Amino acid sequence: MKYTKEKQQVVRFCIVGILNAIITYISLFLLDMAGVKLLWANFVGYFIVLIHSFIWSRAWIFKKSNRRLINEFLLFTSTFLIAFALQFTTFSLLVKVAGINEYLANLAALIVFGFTNFVVNKKVTFRH
Question: Which domain covers residue 117, as residue numbers?
Fold first, then answer.
């Protein structure tokens, strides 16, 4: 099996995704222990993950593009928000309309988020 650049990017993307999950849960736990409300703790956790993902996407997964740092960050953030909206919509529809278990729905929604995030960042944000 040939190990292409795209396969390498997918593997790296998944590694960063796993680190993001760990960072999210640790930040939620620590902020909860500090008395921060869960909604705000979740927001802070996702913000930390956004920065973490951007740094690794730019330096390791996709490498930087020909755009300036600020332009890349704005595109990356927009992509993150779009992917998050699709993930939230998928989760809500699967749970509320299709009656699927929340854990399975969350897994499916996570796949939607990851796929959207990877493809748009590869084709738009970090396009060479």
Answer: 5-125
Q: Dihedral angle at the C-alpha atoms of 97, 115, 120, 22, nearest 10 degrees?
A: 100
Give the pair of three-digit tokens for residue 125.
Answer: 């944000």
Give the angle subtended at the CA of 108 by the CAs of 105 and 113, to the nearest 5°. Answer: 120
What is the number of domains present in the chain? 1
- pLDDT tens sequence across 33-45: 999 998 788 889 8
Residue 11 corresponds to which amino acid?
A: V
Residue at 98: amino acid letter: A
Rounded to whole angstroms, how far apart are CA atoms 49 and 63?
A: 18
Q: Which residues contact 29 (CB under 8 A, 6 or more apart)?
A: none
Contacts 24+ apart (CB under 8 A), 100-103: none
3-state secondary structure of 64: coil
